[in-house]
Amino acid sequence: MTNNDVLKKLRVALKLRDDDIVKILELVDFRISKSELGAFFRKEDHPKYMECGDQILRNFLNGLVIHMRGPLPKKIASKTKVADKSSEKKVSTKKPDYKKSESIKPKSNKKASNK
């Protein structure tokens, strides 16, 4: 299965149009025109057919992840984390003490002695 086949199958499965694919590629700062994109979807024997390279497919898949999940949250600088941790209140991990309720004592099974 070629990269072109993978791109075609994803396009059909996700019901993507050329505009959508161009926008997805722009999410990862990869610019491509609709006519270049159309060349990937042509039949192999067509004179304008172009083979989809690994870089284009990789960028499309990375852009698709961002498109479907959304962008990654920004990482906080390590200095900020240290400052935030020192200013936070410490939360007790100790289990709370519950008063023991008086339970009913079971009857003893001692036999009465005969005198």
From TrEMBL:
It holds the Pfam family DUF1456. It comes from Formosa agariphila (strain DSM 15362 / KCTC 12365 / LMG 23005 / KMM 3901 / M-2Alg 35-1). Residues 81-105 have a biased composition (Basic and acidic residues). This is Uncharacterized protein. PANTHER family: CYTOPLASMIC PROTEIN, CYTOPLASMIC PROTEIN-RELATED. Residues 76-115 are annotated as: Disordered.
